[in-house]
Amino acid sequence: ADVGDAVMTDLTGDGKPELVLTLRQRNALGEREIFQVFDLRGEHARAIFGVETRKQTQQGFIEAVLEVRGAKARREIVVRMGRAQGLSADNYQESPATGVAAILLPWGPVAERVFAWDTTSQRMVVVREQQNPHVAAAHGEVAATPAAAPVAVPVAASNVSALIAAFKQARGLAPTASPRLSERANVAEDARPEALQLFGSDLVVVGEGFRGGASFFYFGLPVRAPSDVLQLFTGDVTGDGRSEIFVRVRTQVGEVQREILLGYTFVELALAPILAVEVRRALGAASISNVVSLVRAAGRVVLQIEPGLADGWSVQTYPFASEASDTTAPLLLPWKDRKVRYDYDGRRLVRQSGHD
Questions:
Q1: Rounded mean pLDDT of 59-70?
Q2: Cβ(140)–Cβ(211) under 8 Å?
Q3: What residues contact 135, with CB distance under 8 A and at least 6 apart?
Q4: Cβ–Cβ under 8 Å, residues 223 and 247
Q5: Strand-by-strand arrangement of the 194-199 sheet
């Protein structure tokens, strides 16, 4: 009953159809509907695109309108903001889903977003957007989506401080506001490093060599509150000489608390998700915490996750199924799992076999 629709259609232009499902998912916070595309060419079905089309809580719902159009060689997925009932910018606190594009909000900056398959990166990318005429345009993307628009700032290319000041002004922050987390690394374009700073749940990226040093970029992390962003670090795990961005975030479903490690990389000038893996779970006083580290292997940097220790749980008392029930890779369990490493396959970080 949670599969609303299922069709086979070619959305990548390779002459082979993909499986397209409309799925309904529920948890203690409410329910959502997702339009999801699966590639069937490998041994297992692989999700290559997803976007939220409806979200409902006890207060009301938000709906978006989705349409697939275009010729077979160039199919486009068009998502437009729809209606909201009972929910508004004042009471909507639901975070975007991990691994899929967030729903377009009627009060958000984007009224329409168009996705299409990019043969170079082998993923769905944003090809164009239409701004929401009812929202003042003076900032970049606010939802956790594969791309965000640049924000032109009339300042000298080398004045990174002025870009941060322009971001604060656009987001209504005090000029004296300080970032809660910050990092400096080369994450995009030329070899010069960028400054990454976290204000609230917005991760802003600026740099003298980033977008010509004349605009800032920010990305809304998928959390319900700024305090749910726990860690920010970077490391080059794709081997291209530029670092990827990792953030550790906290989510709460009922009494269960989870911590998810999210990874992102810049593809051209857009930020693309490459990882979502659970690294901690707690219920009451009991918890399991995995150990996350960047290590050198065969002359390169890889992401390594170890099972760690269980506090208050054992193989007999652990109350959860060990497999993941969403798009997030599962938590490692100390009584059955070994440490694992993640390698980049050109699109995502994928889990490799256990290591001693």
A1: 90
A2: no
A3: 107, 108, 109
A4: no
A5: 151-152, 215-220, 202-206, 194-199, 181-185
Using DSSP bridges, classify how beta strands 215-220 and 151-152 pair: parallel, antiparallel or unpaired: antiparallel
Q: What pLDDT does 182 receive?
A: 93
Q: How many residues does the chain have?
A: 356
pLDDT score at 144:
34
pTM: 0.60
pLDDT in tens, 178-219: 999 999 999 998 889 999 999 999 999 998 888 878 788 888
Residue 170's pLDDT is what?
A: 82
- The residue ranges of DSSP E strands in 10-138, in sequence order, are 18-27, 30-39, 46-57, 60-69, 76-85, 110-118, 123-131
Tell me how far apart the alpha carbons of residues 23 and 2 are, in angstroms, rounded to a whole number.
Answer: 6
Amino acid at 20: V
Estimate the share of the chain in helix, then strand, then coil, as percent rounded to the nearest 5.
5, 50, 45
Closest CA to 103 of 76, 121, 130, 79: 79
Residues whose CB falls within 8 Å of the CB of residue 264, separated by 6 or more in sequence, listed in order: 219, 244, 245, 246, 247, 271, 272, 273, 274
- Cα radius of gyration rounded to whole Å, the chain: 20
Distances (CA, A) of 211 to 84, 208, 219: 35, 8, 15
Collapse the DSSP code of 209 into the 3-class scheme (helix H, G, I; strand E, B; otherwise coil) and give the result: coil
15: Cβ contacts below 8 Å, ≥ 6 apart: none
Buried b (16+ CB within 10 A) or exposed e, 276-310: bbbbbbbbeeebbbbebebeeeeeebbbbbbbbeb
